[in-house]
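Rather than argue in generalities, we have chosen a single entry, letters for residues, whole numbers for local backbone shapes, without further comment.
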Amino acid sequence: MYKVILVGTDGSETAAKAVAAAADIARSGGSELHIVSAFRPGAASTAMGAAAGAPLVDTGAQHAMLEEAAKQVSDKAVDAFGEGLNAHAHSIPGDAVDVILDTAVGVGADLIVVGSKGMRGARRYIGSVPNSVAHGAPCDVLVVKTA
């Protein structure tokens, strides 16, 4: 039914549940699977600067380190769940919601799989990745119970 499936991961245990579900759906339908991990270099620089008491400048080296970490997350997910699939890993700078939605358009996804973590409590009202993806998606969205 679905030809191109996209799932986001941050490497967490709950995200792995969503990736596993996406891989199972892709496997059962012979679909292509895209696993994406977003990273935000500026956010890390600001957080580290605040912790140290002084702002830090986002450098190319820091960007490269964060990009490599995101690449390892998506590559690890492909290794763990992509066996027997046409699976692709993506590590892309930006906000997780924007990265998922933009990548879905770019790869022609007809299904986005997200985990339910963040859809309860206060985060549900101020916005969460699953909620924002579901409302902005150009295609079907499956919310997998992960929390």
Notes: The chain has one domain: 4-144. The first strand starts at residue 4 and ends at 8. The chain has six helices and five strands.
